[in-house]
Amino acid sequence: MHRNGNSVRLRLDIGYDGTDFHGWAAQPGLRTVQGELESALAVVLRLSEQFVALTVGGRTDAGVHARGQVAHIDVPHELADGLTERRLNGVLRRGAPDIAVHAVREVPSVFDARFSALRRRYEYRVRDPRVRRDPLTARFTADVSRPIDPALLQVASDELLGLNDFTSFCKAREGATAIRELIQFDWSRADDGVFVARLEADAYCHSMVRSLVGAVVATASGRIGITELVELREARARTSRFTVMPAHGLSLEEISYPADADLAARAALTRAKRDPLEN
Fold first, then answer.
1. Residue 133 belongs to domain with CATH number
2. Is it the case that residue 277 has pLDDT exceeding 50?
3. Is 271 domain-assigned?
4. Residue 14 belongs to what domain range?
């Protein structure tokens, strides 16, 4: 058992359809994933909502979906055994059926859903005009107006891999770094003909995935060339040469964590400030 004083740390594995949410983070007067989950937790635990606080692994924007979201919560040890996915889902089905809790399990007190993460994997679905629009997947697929060259999708994506300053693909936040390691950026075709991007990185800055997909789609549809794409990456400045893709095509698929013995070290490393890259 991983007890820390009078509390127990629990990990929640979560999925949701983000269409009708104003993002993950709780906001007064707005429907959010965090707000709905914390309300359900308060019901199950029989606590006031002010004593229920989730820490999330990937803070998704409004309209973004998830199949592999992770969060943690500290609860009094005498209440921990009563917090199960079955009971949580029972409450959610009544008020937030677009959220599902896949698992609830006890984790070490040093586990941090955000800072202990090794990698986060996203998927983005894009349909070009040559693919028949399917109303059943429209909530999860972005449409583009120009035909896409599949070969150029991968060529362009390969140019963005590795450790880079991704300022050109992020919405700047005061004092935040845009240095990230993009480990994977691959494309495939789904059975319905939709292009599916899979991106994996140690972390992302704000709107990074949708910007990267937008830049690559612009390249693969002839709006910009490969040389210009590289120049945009190296410029480290926001640009209007490509469009940030809409939120509804994006889904958080998986967050990976190290073994329990390495959780604290990973969290300390993640919190450390990264130095700027040299030109």
1. 3.30.70.660
2. no
3. no
4. 3-114
Within-domain flag for 266: no
Residues 31, 177: Cα–Cα separation, whole Å = 29
Q: Is residue 260 flagged as an active site residue?
A: no
- pLDDT one-digit tens code per residue, 160-194: 999 999 999 997 677 678 899 999 999 999 999 99
Contact 169, 180 (CB under 8 A): no
Whether 267 is covered by a domain: the verdict is: no
Among candidate residues 61, 98, 192, 262, the one labeled active-site is: 61
CATH number of 91's domain? 3.30.70.580
Task: Specify whether the CB–CB gap between 215 and 132 falls below 8 A.
Answer: no
Percent of the chain residues past pLDDT 90, beyond the cut: 87
pLDDT of residue 4: 55
